[in-house]
Amino acid sequence: MDSSPPPPGSAQEPTPLSDAEKIRLKRLAKLQQGSSNTSGETSQPTASSSKTVPTRPNSLPKTPTQEKPASPIKKPSTPVNQELPEKTPPKITPPTKSFEDWQNDIISRVLQITLDKSTAEKSENRLIYLDSVVKTLMEENPGMVSFKLSKSVLDSALFARLSIDPNQMSDSDQPPQIPLFDYLLDSWKRASEIKRSTRASKTLEQSVINERVGVIDTLKELIINYVQYVLLYPDDLPQIRKQLGPNQFVSKLLAEFDSFEGLPLDFIKELVNKVDDEGFDKLFAPALLGYSAQIRTKNILGMDYLLPLNSLVTLSEIKPLADKITKLRNWNSPNSNARIFEVGSLLGPFCKFSVFPTDEPKIAESYFANPHTKRQADIDSAMTSLRGAIRGVQQSVFKIFNNIVRSSPSSREAVLSYFAEVIKLNERRAQMQVDQFQVGSDGFLMNLTSVLLYFADPIMDMRNPKIDRVDVNYFRKSNRIDISRETKIKATQQEADTYFSSVDESASAPNFISEIFFLTIAMHHYGPLHSYEVYNNFIRDILELQKQYDRMRADQPNWAGTPMAARNEELLAHCKSQLEKYASHRIAHETQLLDQVYLDHSLKFYNLVMNWMLRIVDPTGKHPEKQIQLPLPPTPPETFAMLPEYIFEDVAEIFLFVAKYIPRAAAVSRDDLIVFIITFLKSSSYIKKPYLKAKLVEILFYFTFRSNDREVGMVTAMNSHPLALNHLLSALMSFYVEVEQTGAHTQFYDKFNIRYNISQIFKAIWGNHVHKEKLREESRNIDSFVRFANLLMNDVTFLLDESLRKLAEIHSIQTEMDNKDEWESQTQQYRQERENTLRSDERSATSYISLGNETVEMLVHMTSEVADPFLTPQMVERLAAMLDYNLKSLVGPKCTELKVRNPETYSFKPKELLLQLVKIYLNLCKRKEFVYAVARDKRSYDKIYFSKAAGTLSNRGLFSPKNVSELEKFVNEVEETIKLENEDEEELGEVPDEFLDPVLYTIMEDPVILPGSRTTVDRSTIITHLLSDTTDPFNRMPLKIEDVIPNTELKERIEKFRQEKRRK
Known about the structure:
mainly alpha, Methane Monooxygenase Hydroxylase, Chain G, domain 1, two-stranded antiparallel ribbon, 61% helix
């Protein structure tokens, strides 16, 4: 070097510093201040300063305090077995070198420098002789001719080594030059290795080890300080003109840790502890962004995504680094839509991995193309492998987020804000029409949901329940999740606005458990639950395309050889290709959506959600520790009513999805689900919208209709759980009535689907004697049960009428098509229209007949157990007329119009339907009210139909002689009653119109005046009408039975008329 620093403590005035050296001094001071703040340690300044080797504040740490020598007794690494001979502890020996000689050797080995010229010469250019340092020491110590490296000269020695200009060195007399960063890194590695071997020594006194380790730690810390310096200020020291500054560090950080190309992990940890925010931004931020950029182009097919993913997991375990991650500008990508956020935020690309064909179409093509040509075992194996890979990514991403959360309170807040931002940006996913390029991908949302589920694990642990720590007032205390525009479970918008605007300012902020709980719910809502809906629609599309393909194949003989043949062949090939593509896409969807490990995790969380909601409505607030008891108070708690409706709906949707596609996954949720469903079906006033309760019924339907009860045990639970035995049947009956008016524009058709589901549940529980007793108990409440029975009968009437009408239309079209000559003579347009009508009628017939069969079967069960409600004046004549009409349709003169090809394809089994109708007759045949009602049916009754029905059923082995005898006896009683009725009518003769009911045109027994229209009708007629429609039939104004006015004067006149006729 050009000049040497003055000796420490010299009286000589320091040489004035140049501007460049002043800047260098300030930078070093800044680095040391930053490292001091980070590490919490204060370093000792060196004793001297000079123009060339300026004093660097805090460049050396304090010498470690010498500890009292430890006992030389060595503890065994494993318990000593008394049967084995005791191991002799290693012998403690004094050091072979003095501390000064050891210190000189170690510093020389680590930094590859020496203060002895002959030693440098003997090293064959491996060691650099620091002539400038030696000259300075000679000036400070006149008379001394040899010097040793020590802790006191470390700073000046290393600075002198770094200040040598490699561009002016001769290769013949100096070691090969490398960039200063590489030199410092190699020095740190050598120091670390020496430290490990020193600490592992078994022969040195502990005090000697401590003293030596102290020197090495000081040396390593000094190296780390200069690493910062040469990276952040590369122009301050002479270097080889290659890659300089942060880039050379970043390139190594992006390589695998502890590899030849990469950096030792401990080195990274020590450097992180030293750098300040500015240094972090220059050194670590580019690498973190580099990981994000690397993984952005990867997918689950290759293994190359593992390096950046695992590297970030490892780095996030360094607490100071994890804390700084959230401070980076790309942590929460600002002013972006959901899709840009997914790829632009720092962790977004790590969360995007999926096997959804909309995200990664190559996966479906690579693993599941042409699935019909593959063995199922091979498909299952591929699905298992992909699920394992996705699960591994999810666990790794959780570790990253978890490490960040644990690094500091501010980082925890940043992570919560990140999740909230994802939710906010993806609110559009809940809309009916979604632009997929404006929202996050399915994989991204699924993976973040999985991350939140891992965070929620401690809450879900039933051994240590934390359900009480979920804040029911979360949405009043926090606006992290915006629910201002969300529909509430049982509140108007105005009520909700008032409720949420009245906030206690002194209330504490929500705890972390509450944050995770509600974020997990919201992420499910916009993530997996939307994916489930997309999958449902996708399955419907596949089924529709398959039907179209099958129709074209079936119709192929008709268009083969016509001008349309070429085009139709092309369409057929296209359909087949699409079906093959959809088949592979379906498997890809199911790989991720039907992963039972993921679903188990999700359902476990929703068990918590269900129990939390039940706890809110439980008057005791003790559920699930003490099960909720029914009935609940008529008005729900305000905290429940103000919850977003989607929380309740999502519970239903996720279990619906599971019930449809993978019912066995719900086994762990069975009892919690039963309690939840029955509670809210029974407490109907707690839920504003009927369609939400309909979803609860649909869940039970799918678990009874499709699943193997041995897998889930849902039917077993419905027939054994105390809450189900006490309340399920009455809840279903009440809801059967409620869905008559849902408020939706599709309510007429919705009610049949809902009631079909209810009929299937009834079928599953009908054999249980406890449920039968509950039915009898419910039937004692005549008013409510008659309303249920009336709607049941209305449904039977409509469904059977529509079913038979559609079958007659199908018969007509099929007959027309069977006449080939006449059919071919029709125009193409006419044939096309008739074929379309046929397909429409076939769909309608199938639906109506299926619904009708189940409703008739339910009526059979009901009349076998509880006849009285069906025999009330407002019910019995309608029931008799309905039965007679359908009996006539099945065995009367027009029954041949119901003959269609392949009737089983429409679920039409005329003999079974006939048997069910006759069973209802037999259930009621011993009651005089029923005999009289059948006798009064002049539109459809004919005794010959009963004879035909009995003969048909007997010939098929469906009717016993006893049944035939009972039916004959019933018909005889009806005939006798008809005879008496006819005699009465002859006595009455011509009846004045004012005595006749205006609806049924029968003589009134109890005339009443309707207050709105002032019309007089028979009481039984208006009661029957009000069972289905709560309005005056003559002016459509609201009407209750309590409002009608008895027409006493007319009743007396009718009675007087009867008496006069009888006297004559």
